[in-house]
Design goal:
The chain has 382 residues and is an alpha+beta fold. The protein contains 9 helices and 9 strands. It has a single domain, classed as Beta Barrel (Catalase HpII,  Chain A, domain 1). Helices cover 27% and strands 18% of the residues.
Length: 382
């Protein structure tokens, strides 16, 4: 998606005087401090399953990929270490035991739904998903065959470009009509201006390395009695490194760059949480709205350590493709919140079940494969 500079100026000016319309169904009026179900929620959920399965089918090649974040750069072994000095107000779920260490899988990905179009040098969202294993308690949903998991899904954007359930289903039903979704006709009161600007924040040039961005949950979750968003930022700001391949021509340069980096040294991210401040207008439902860090700073809760390792084997890449992540692979203390997360409860299993059935594969035993240690160079705690 490319727009001329005058065109962007016009859109911003119009957006300053028109309401940020969002098509049919604005949803519940509350959406701030508590969840309120829509009258059409069951129908929207059924439509999501139908649309998401169709999306996966429409963009399959000889291999049926995920309906979102179709291209994995890698799945790497990691540790998730809860900070020993974590404040008592944050000690819920996987954070209830200061100093606790979890074996984890970290998946890096491109955000595009079309595997053929998901080339690393293109503007896109980049994803980081973390799967904690050997957790205490029963998650709301599980698919892993050998252990309960807590999954945390993030992208390198603070906001999403779809506001509510009907808009999500309309976009997924026809994702190629990108401009038509945001500007449906000539009536400016029907334009989705706020969402369009959020989309421009989402589709960004590729980073120098997948280890340099900060990643965000975008949607809110519970943390015990609190409503939060979470994120993961690099432990230290990494200097931009010269890519090991030409990023202007190689569709897989981010994967190759990551392999080169992790073959030499490890990496780490700080996992952090941001509490909702209702009085500051922080919504549970509207994922296009950013929660201000000035109003609610992020609080560090844990460190994600990625040891030096080799993930390039064909076996590990197959394992990564068959692994399943979902927001609802979560303890009740970390329950997903808001309209989009409630739709994701239907979309992710629909995508996972369909692609595994079509590919005649199974979700692998994540903990058993982690323990096997194939491909790792070192996994010592720093």
């Amino acid at each position: 998606m490319r727009q001329s500079f005058p065109g962007i100026i016009f859109i911003i000016l119009v957006g300053s005087i028109l309401p940020a319309c969002s098509g049919e169904g604005a949803g519940p009026a509350d959406g701030l401090g508590r969840e309120a179900l829509r009258d059409d929620e069951a129908g929207q959920a059924a439509l999501t399953k139908q649309n998401f399965q169709k999306l996966v089918e429409d963009y399959k090649t000889s291999y049926v990929a995920r309906g979102a974040h179709a291209k994995a750069h890698s799945c790497v072994r990691a540790y998730f270490d809860v900070h020993g000095d974590i404040q008592a107000d944050y000690r819920y779920g996987v954070f209830s035991r200061p100093g606790k260490r979890y074996k984890s899988w970290v998946r890096f990905s491109n955000g595009h739904y079309d595997l053929k179009a998901s080339q690393d040098y293109r503007d896109d969202a980049r994803g980081l998903a973390v799967k904690l294993m050997e957790i205490s308690g029963q998650p709301l949903e599980r698919s892993d065959v050998d252990t309960a998991t807590q999954d945390f899904l993030m992208t390198n954007s603070r906001v999403f470009f779809v506001k509510n359930m009907p808009d999500y289903n309309q976009f997924v039903a026809n994702p190629e009509d990108f401009i038509g979704f945001f500007f449906p006709g000539w009536n400016p009161f029907n334009w989705r201006l706020k969402e369009f600007l959020a989309a421009r924040k989402t589709l960004t040039p590729p980073p120098d390395s997948l280890l340099t961005p900060t990643y965000y949950s975008i949607t809110p979750y519970k943390l015990g009695p609190h409503n939060i968003k979470f994120g993961a930022k690099p432990c230290v700001e990494r200097a931009a490194e010269k890519p090991v391949v030409d990023e202007n021509t190689d569709p897989d340069y981010l994967r190759k760059q990551l392999q080169a980096e992790l073959s030499e040294t490890g990496a780490c991210f700080i996992f952090q949480a941001q509490k909702q401040q209702v009085e500051r207008g922080m919504s549970l439902d509207d994922a296009t709205g950013e929660w201000s860090e000035e109003d609610s700073p992020f609080m560090p809760l844990a460190t994600i350590t990625i040891p030096r390792q080799d993930f390039s084997s064909a076996e590990q890449l197959r394992f990564c493709e068959n692994l399943s992540y979902a927001p609802w692979h979560a303890l009740p203390e970390h329950r997903p919140l808001g309209q989009l997360n409630r739709l994701r409860r239907h979309a992710y299993p629909a995508s996972s079940d369909y692609r595994h059935r079509q590919n005649q594969t199974r979700i692998p035993a994540a903990l058993a494969y982690w323990r096997a240690g194939r491909g790792s160079i070192t996994e010592k705690k720093p």
